[in-house]
Amino acid sequence: TLTQAEKAAVVAIWSKASTQAEAIGAESLERLFTSYPQAKTYFPHFDLSQGSSQLRAHGSKVLNAVGEAVKHIDDISGALAKLSELHAYILRVDPVNFKLLSHCILCTVAARYPNDFTPEVHAAWDKFLSSISSVLTEKYR
Ligand code: ZNH
Fold first, then answer.
1. How wide is the angle at C-alpha 100 spanned by C-alphas 128 and 91, nearest 5°?
2. Which residue among 46, 105, 136 has the greatest number of ligand 1 atoms within 8 angstroms of its CB, and so is best to mutate?
3. Ligand 1: nearest atom to the Cα of 129
4. What is the pTM of this model?
5. How much is the pLDDT for 51?
6. Which long-range contacts link 78-84 to residues 24+ away (Cβ below 8 Å)?
7. Is 127's pLDDT higher than 90?
8. Which of 19, 79, 93, 127 has minimal Cβ neighbours within 10 Å of its Cβ?
9. CA 112 vs CA 24, 81, 105, 115, 131: distances in Å
10. 95-115 residue pLDDT tens
């Protein structure tokens, strides 16, 4: 679980990033599909070219879910319960991909807010994104 200081670091960056949710989400997905093309196999029905409307719409959904987790930082598993079921029972995304996407979100946020992205903030976001990934993969069997 996150310490008070880590929670504060996550909330502080989110207060800036939330206004850019769609752009950050789309860029994170672009980084994911460019660096790890195997992740594209989950989106055969999407136009994944850079800046496509589907990429932006999906990026926005993913980052808004991250925002829900920030809002309910003391109950991430409650906040994302429905999404957890979707990913475990219906989408069946290989859990490896959650680490890759988390890494891409981290890079995107770091690139946008370089001055805010201290080692402590980096560590806090890394831990926070890991918690989200754990929640989204906890119902797998
Ligand atoms: Zn996921 C979907 C979130 C990861 C794949 N997602 C989704 C959604 C959301 C999310 C919000 C929407 C839902 C509805 O609509 O209801 N994810 C998320 C998050 C994360 C994720 C937060 C982390 C961080 N995913 C992921 C991964 C993958 C995925 C890693 C792979 C690679 N998702 C997915 C898919 C889908 C989703 C495929 C479906 C899409 C469509 O639309 O079709």
1. 90
2. 136
3. 24
4. 0.97
5. 92
6. 80/132, 80/135, 80/136, 83/136, 84/135, 84/136, 84/137, 84/138, 84/139
7. yes
8. 19
9. 9, 29, 11, 9, 22
10. 999 999 999 999 999 999 999
Asked if 84 and 77 touch (Cβ cutoff 8 Å), the reply is yes
What pLDDT does residue 106 have? Answer: 98
* 8-state DSSP, 46: S
Whole-complex ipTM: 0.98
End-to-end CA distance of the chain: 23
Contact 42, 62 (CB under 8 A): no
Which two tokens mark 140?
């797998």
HSE-CB of 49 using CA atoms within 13 angstroms = 2
**If DSSP codes are grouped into helix, strand and coil, which group holds residue 36?**
coil
Determine the Cα–Cα distance for residues 118 and 132; give it in Å rounded to an integer.
Answer: 21
CA 104–ligand 1 middle distance (angstroms): 14
Half-sphere exposure of 1 (CA within 13 A, CB side): 7
